[in-house]
Amino acid sequence: MKVLITGFEPFGNDEVNPSYEAVKKINLSQSKHSINQACLPVVFHQALKVLYDLIEKHQPDVVICVGQAGGRTHLTIERVGINVDDARIPDNAGNLPVDQVIVPSGSDAYFSNLPIKAMAFEMNKIGIPTTISNTAGTYVCNHVLYGLMYYIHEKSPNIKGGFIHVPYIPSQATAYPNSASMDLDNIVRGLEFAIEAACEYQEDIKISHGTTC
């Protein structure tokens, strides 16, 4: 299968973004699938233009976008993207949308069609802390997840797509006291198993990853 996996450039006060640092370290030779890696800008709408161009170029069967979620302790596979931009900080072009819809003609939300629980199961099985997340935020990560699933819903329903958030890496966490982090090699290993599960599972599995609030 053909896979497109993307990370993001650094944003805010960070000099690195672990999402792309991990994506570009994925060992292509160990996978039986064809994997293309790319970096997206942390800019509303421009990120989607770049992503759509990559999809048109590579014609993938699976698209996994990866972003940074500083403060989270696990790799978190996102369940849903919502149709709103509500930025706490400006993007890398200075845009600061507040309560703006992403696609006026789109649905309120789109769910990932990746086998998210199977992916979490396989990643946890090898010792990489992973869980399902029910919010991708309202910044550029959610923007990209929503825009990806809108594209799939409208144009390419045969593509499987979704989003994974990764924690800070230790070198970043020193600037954020008491913040969680994960070793970059573990993030890379988790993403490699996520790719394999996304390609191999034709249907998701039924296991509990729900929350009580």
Automatic annotation (TrEMBL):
Q: Which SUPFAM superfamilies match?
A: Pyrrolidone carboxyl peptidase (pyroglutamate aminopeptidase) (SSF53182)
Reaction catalysed by this enzyme: Release of an N-terminal pyroglutamyl group from a polypeptide, the second amino acid generally not being Pro
Tell me where on the tree of life, at the top rank, the source sits. Bacteria
What's in the keyword line of the UniProt record? Cytoplasm, Hydrolase, Protease, Thiol protease
* Broad enzyme group: hydrolase
Task: Write out the annotated subcellular location.
Answer: Cytoplasm
What EC number(s) does its UniProt record assign?
A: 3.4.19.3
Key word DNA-binding present in the record? no
Question: Which positions are catalytic residues?
Answer: 78, 141, 165
Query: Which CDD domains does this one have?
Result: Peptidase_C15 (cd00501)
Q: Which InterPro entries match?
A: Peptidase_C15, Peptidase_C15-like, Peptidase_C15-like_sf, PGP-I_bact-type, PGPEP1_Glu_AS
The record's similarity note reads: Belongs to the peptidase C15 family.
The free-text function statement in the UniProt record for this protein reads: Removes 5-oxoproline from various penultimate amino acid residues except L-proline.
UniProt protein name: Pyrrolidone-carboxylate peptidase
Organism whose genome encodes this protein: Fusibacter bizertensis
